[in-house]
Specification:
5 strands, 9% helix, two-stranded antiparallel ribbon, three-stranded antiparallel sheet, mainly beta
């Protein structure tokens, strides 16, 4: 999976914690034991306010799972996601 970013901001400073969308080590595992399916593992990124991101990848790589986690429709099995208006 590739997450592509573009910023409308002119400064190139690092984002402050808690601004925009921050994903830190997000993972999602469906099932348990030998039946477990890893949908996402170690997904980390920051999308600053005023910028955009695209999630690109082949079928079955976890794009929709990531978007469902970001929309707070499902809870990830690991890591953290935070969002604010900045």
């Amino acid at each position: 999976m590739v997450i592509a970013f573009s910023s409308a901001r002119e400064d190139s400073g690092a984002p402050s914690p808690g601004q925009g969308i921050v994903a830190d080590g997000v993972e999602m595992v469906y099932g348990k034991g030998r039946e477990a399916t890893v949908a996402l593992s170690g997904c980390s990124f920051v999308v600053e306010p005023g910028s955009w991101a695209s999630v690109i990848g082949p079928s079955g790589c976890g794009k929709s799972t990531l978007l469902r986690i970001l929309a707070n429709l499902v809870e990830s099995t690991g890591g953290a996601v935070s969002a604010s208006a900045g």
